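Example with several molecule types.
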Amino acid sequence: SQTIHQWPATLVQPVGSPLSLECTVEGTSNPNLYWYRQAAGRGLQLLFYSVGIGQISSEVPQNLSASRPQDRQFILSSKKLLLSDSGFYLCAWSAGGYEQFFGPGTRLTVL
Amino acid sequence: RKEVEQDPGPFNVPEGATVAFNCTYSNSASQSFFWYRQDCRKEPKLLMSVYSSGNEDGRFTAQLNRASQYISLLIRDSKLSDSATYLCVALGYGQNFVFGPGTRLSVLP
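Resulting structure tokens for the full complex:
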């Protein structure tokens, strides 16, 4: 069966510091991968998605970036965090046009 | 107009009640639809997929009306454990999943 991992589970970072969140999927090949952010009390905002290694589509221009160095690994990064980057970051995978399955998420607080 | 719209609620219903949520979508090219539930501070979890006119799974029934561009979710015999936020999702072209803002349900004893 497929499993999706995210780490860390929680993170507290100062403004201006870098960020690296990692997501890995097990039990499937060539998944579509997604990064979402959910601000407190708000809906999910799609940040990036990837249909293959090295292929990244950005939905919202901001100070975040994403990379997919391996088939089942998706990384979200920032060089300098802003206060507005605080939120619940969710990674998800899908088998191309079917349901999405989410990881447990990373709760990021930028102080 | 937002691509996927939902009444944010909250819907407060007694145990055993039947409750229905509606969701409207603006992109007529949307191919597939899903309902997720999200518990507080947790990730969304898939509740139902809706590929044709509807789907039923136990106490949960989802219906799709393509002509009017809405999807509904009906929950019968509500349980306390049904309390959550319910997210409506539309899948358009290009693997683009569009989430609605969610409808909050509280089932009261």
